Amino acid sequence: YFSQTSHSAMRFRYTDWDSVRHGSQQPLFEELLDLFQELLEHTAGDAEEALDWMEQLDDKYGLTEGSDKDLDDFIEELKKRGYLEDGEDGETVGSTARTERSLRQSALEEIFNDLKKGGMGGHRTSYTGQGDERLPETKDWQFGDDLSNLDVTGTLSNSFRRSGVGDDWALAEDDFQVHKTDHHASMATVLMIDLSHSMVLYGEDRITPARRVALALSELIMTQYPKDSLDIVAFGNDAWEVDVEELPYLDVGPYYTNTRAGLRRARDILHRRNNRNKQIFMITDGKPSCHIEDGEMYRNAYGLDRKVVNKVLDEATVCRREDITITTFMIARDPGLRDFVRELTEANQGRAYYSELDDLGSFLFEDYVRNRRKHMG
């Protein structure tokens, strides 16, 4: 924003944009869409509930005050642009695939805005050789090197230096130079999300940040690292796979915490992946409190029962033997829980982070990049 301070000298004074003094820089629809998407994150994708919240906010704070449009117009515009569709009863509305994609994109953008401050690095290994990205450095061609990386200038220079430019000029095998390339190791990741009841206990919403991270990570991999794979496993009384399209709608249930089932399901998925690098990210705030044996559930609501904990540690040890690293992101600071995570990390020789809810995305994304550098793919 600028204001002219002198007509004769044409001097201008520049200041930061103040939405109160200068008005919004965003069209009303875009502002309302941002709010709608944020509310969708908190309502586990329930469009009807999100719109109901918007109506209450509009009544209290005048979201559409001063505009010739109201919330009904906004809803119609959402339908027109493909963010909402009418339900079968003709009275309710629901989210669409475009809304789900938009939620992934906005979650990724939000997390990366924070990561830029810390300068997250590129997505490559520290090795050179057969890879995806051409480097300026060159080397002598060897059998098996991809000739699409041929250094034409260097090759011709070698040839001219050896045979001259006359009629006897010819190319020999020793003349060929190719560009070195970066290794881009492919990574298979399973993200485990705890859906036990503790994720919403005591008035603290822990599932929304976990869901946002899953949305952002899925969008990152699908758009930036298509050779990588991401699978989602939700766990409560048992564990089950979740499709990317289902992520906005993940919600907690009246579940115990079957960490063993989650790790076992994640390991089974990674067996099916051909990527050499394999890892599990686990987001949880709960103590393991149950496991299933011979079709029967053994449970202890207080958690950290050794019968349960030992089963989890056994599974972590199997993951270690199969070169699957477990990185645990704890969003609670209970001393007993920290002791369990320490045991889990030692058994797997993995990693553990005790992160605040606001930092969860940054911790996970930075670790994702670092873990991809572990092996050459």
Helix-strand sequence: EEHHHHEEHEEHEEHEEHEEEHEHEH
Which class best fits the helix and strand makeup? alpha/beta
Helix content: 40-55%
- Sequence stretches where pLDDT stays below 50 over 5 or more residues: 1-10, 19-25, 118-132
Question: Could you say which overall geometry the principal axes of the C-alpha atoms support?
Answer: flat
As laid out across the biggest beta sheet, the strand order is 10-9-8-11-14-15
Number of helices: 11
Radius of gyration: 27 Å
Query: Major sheet, described briefly?
Result: 6 strands, mixed
> Taking all residues together, what is the mean pLDDT?
82
Distance between the termini: 50 Å
| Number of β-strand runs | 15
Describe this protein's structure.
- The chain is of the alpha/beta class and 377 residues long.
- It is 40% helix and 20% strand.
- It is built from eleven helices and 15 strands.
- It has helices at 19-22, 28-42, 47-61, 71-80, 97-118, 152-163, 207-224, 259-271, 306-321, 335-348, 360-371, and strands spanning 2-6, 11-14, 84-86, 93-95, 128-129, 133-140, 177-182, 187-194, 229-235, 239-242, 277-284, 290-293, 296-299, 324-330, 351-354.
- The strands form five sheets. It has a six-stranded mixed beta sheet, sandwiched between helices. A three-stranded antiparallel beta sheet has the order 5-7-6.
- α2 (28-42) crosses α3 (47-61).
- The longest helix has 22 residues, at 97-118.
- It is flat.
- The two termini are 50 Å apart.
- 33% of the residues are buried.
Task: Please tag this protein with its features.
alpha/beta, 377 residues, 6-stranded mixed sheet, 3-stranded antiparallel sheet, 15 strands, 11 helices
